[in-house]
Amino acid sequence: MSGSSIQAVLERIRQAKVPSRCDVESVLGVTDEGDVRRLFETADDVRRQGVGNGVLLRGIIEFSNYCRGTCLYCGLNGANVQLGRYRLSDAEILAAAEEIHAAGIKTIVLQSGEEADLDPRWLKGIIDRIKSRFDVAITLSVGEHPREAYAMWRRAGADRYLIKIETSDPELYASLHPGMSFENRLRCLEDLEALGYQTGTGNLIGLPGQTVQTIAGDIEFFARGHFDMLSVSPFIPHDQTPLAEAPTGDLMMTLKTIALTRIVGKNTHLPASTAIGSLGGRDERPRALAAGANVVMPNFTPKRFKSLYDIYPGKARSDTLPEQRVMLVEKMVTALGRFVDLSRGDSLKARRSAVLAGTQVIEDSAK
Ligand code: 5AD
Q1: Percent of the chain surpassing pLDDT 90
Q2: Quick one: pLDDT at residue 256?
Q3: Taking CA atoms, which of 123, 161, 178, 220 is between 20 and 30 Å from 137?
Q4: Which residues have CB under 6 Å of ligand 1?
Q5: How far is 175 from 5, CA to CA, in rounded Å?
Q6: How far apart, in whole angstroms, are the C-alpha atoms of residue 209 and residue 28?
Q7: Does the predicted model carry a pTM greater than 0.70?
């Protein structure tokens, strides 16, 4: 693409409510260095206008790796009998929450595999106790559950929920998740949104069978959904899965997708994901932050369990002390001319009316 035409296409995508697939596909296909640079610059500009120069921090606690899921790409999938399974005790979860709070981070992400026998009341109790002790936002990332469970956790004070669509193509989804249901995944996203959660979704780049057209479809899905949070990560093959021999997701395609996701997502929160920090042993998160991302998620899972949360190989497992983690992110982001923002980092989108009685609704017109 010539310099002027990429700029025109990027401008069309930036102005459109839902960009044309054709424009998005052509940008995903660019290889010329100057074109790629213009894409990243446009995304960086949208990021600056939409969310500013601050980089938000979310502290993650991976509290269990039990999973009933069948996701062919994931090391935690229920069929992987080689993996030792763990679940943190209440005291261990609260101690990790305390560490996150002490580090000055105001969002706690409670993440786990999709536990078949998760007792919703148990998780409600954990939310209650974290909320009563610390002034923090809680993000849940625990998979597909009935609407009633989502409602119980929301009433207990959970603020946000992450559940990735992984791919927006129903056929590709079916091929990668035997026995699971794409429709149920969508149902979860709808329920969460209706219950007033700040809702996040996302995809993986490099899934076997995925094409540039599929990725353009994902970006359209993101644009139509007005999500509060969006995450784009590279697929990294795991030895103990059926996709062990598949190639690793392409870094450049991941960065281009992050950039386009920022351009359509405007003020959506978008992490430089841990998977980008783990690709081929190099931490590429600075490149994600320079291509539209504005969130980093330091891990506070207790050290002895970290290696068991084995979604993909090489998952960055730094041995840093909890109190050093913010400083390390600070080092990374100041090198980019940015700063660490230790506020809660709630959604900047206007909330749709929440159906849950008593739910606090944040009104704003920027959606
Ligand atoms: N590579 C990268 N990300 C993965 N995930 C699962 N398996 C992999 C993999 N092999 C991501 C999925 C899922 C989350 C738990 O981890 O996007 O939503």
Answers
A1: 90
A2: 98
A3: 220
A4: 73-74, 164, 166, 204, 233, 235-236, 238, 275, 311-312
A5: 37
A6: 17
A7: yes
